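Render this sequence as a predicted structure.
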Amino acid sequence: MASITFKKVVKQYDGGKEPVVKGIDLTIKDKEFVVLVGGSGCGKSTSLRMIAGLEDITDGEILIGDTVVNNLPPKDRDIAMVFQNYALYPHMTVRENLSFGLKLRKLPQEEIDRRVDDAAKRLEITEYLERLPKQLSGGQRQRVALGRTIVREPKVFLMDEPLSNLDAKLRVQMRAVIKKLHQDLKTTFVYVTHDQVEAMTMADRIVILHQGVIQQYDVPSVIYEKPANVFVAQFIGSPPMNVMDVKRTNKGLVLAATEGSKSQVSWDINLSEYFKEEFEDEMRLGIRPEHIKINDNSEPSLSIPCKVDLMEPLGAETYLYLDCNGLSINARVSPDVKVAVGQQVTANIPLKLFHLFKKSDTVRIGRKGE
């Protein structure tokens, strides 16, 4: 069993005003691919380093399988870690880099050769085994760094932003390589990134951290469709979810006035028909850019008069930046939607697709039937 369990884990550095990790509880199942994601300083890399034994735990417990590893040295945890820095020995060939750790463990040469050849084949670097790291591209070096962990055949793979040094095209390729590795090796993977696209495309489940606290832990589809709060809603998705202040009235909702508001936008809607009874007088309405319809009221929706401020045609889709009564809104539409900069349009928000969040704690209000 290579499950990983956090029990009220706290990490506070000496001299720090508050903990970097604030009593998190987390269970990563055996053979699962879990991604820790969040902005800088959220505690994701610190959490990974505590699993590895590279950071001491201030309070709480971490278990790998059934073993509490708080005081277990890194070499005894049966884990392997890939860092942002490839950390290859420049004077050694690829084969020597891959086999070095196995030789230190005094494995038989036959076993070392088997593991190295197997890892090289999986990562498609067999033809580079006799080259030095300086003779490799960035993507090839990253594959060697991965291979060095594979040959150890650990219970747990830990990866700390391993693709951040690669260009966009290589990152896409390496995402597929790592995902395929997980499928083939059937081992527990814990992966840290600040890139929500990596998280969504690679993870079985995602942990979203903010200021040392877990905001949501679920499968990618649930996090995208049912974000726990405003932070998650705006962190996951590109462009991020549009969030606007609204007030509840006896008829429905009214868009809160902004500095550039020219008129009041209000909507007649029976909220109780769509949402659970957790309303506040002031709330926040969220809608993803791809769910906004332009000049299309073919389904029940909330409508806002807008002006097109900017367009970004991307071929398969177009991003529209709209000025909606003093409020900036992004829409992601099909290139078939023909509009021009400066044009007056109507942004329609389908009733079945928008979210409501409490203003007091930013928590999402559930929809009926969920």
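Summary. The longest strand covers residues 301-313. The chain has a mean pLDDT of 93.
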